Amino acid sequence: MEQNRLSEQEDLLALQKFQHNFENSIKSSVIYLLREGALAIGEIEQRINEPHASIMEQLQELIEDGLVVQQKAEKVNGLAYHLTPPAMELVEQFKTSIAWSKQHITY
Questions:
Q1: Can you list the residues of the chain whose pLDDT is less than 70?
Q2: HEC string of 7-73?
Q3: pLDDT, tens only, 38-65
Q4: CA gap 39, 73 in Å, rounded
Q5: Mean pLDDT of the chain
Q6: How much of the chain is helix, strand and coil, in % rounded to 5?
Q7: How far is the C-alpha of 36 from the C-alpha of 25, rounded, in Å?
Q8: The pLDDT of residue 76
Q9: Which 3 state secondary structure label does DSSP give 68?
Q10: Among residues 63, 58, 101, 98, which one has the least CA distance to residue 84?
């Protein structure tokens, strides 16, 4: 019984950390946008209606968290952002959450 309670507490803490990290929808949106490949900051800004400074701040946090990498890209003649393998795993979770939301939440 005590082991179950400890495991439950660990699960709740992990869930709270996850929610805290993604309470800002910009991070989730950036990760979802990058699911099909690298994008330059201008491309991200065109698709997310948020101020440049906010997007850059969230991108920096995603880089620090090891979910996004910034690299020089010839196709955009500058820097582009792309997902790391852990972030690609997260995209699959987002897809599941999106499907659940579409089925159960009224907009």
A1: 1, 75-76
A2: HHHHHHHHHHHHHHHCCCHHHHHHHHHHHHCCECHHHHHHHCCCCHHHHHHHHHHHHHCCCEEEEEE
A3: 999 999 999 999 999 999 999 999 999 9
A4: 9
A5: 89
A6: 65, 10, 20
A7: 19
A8: 62
A9: strand
A10: 63
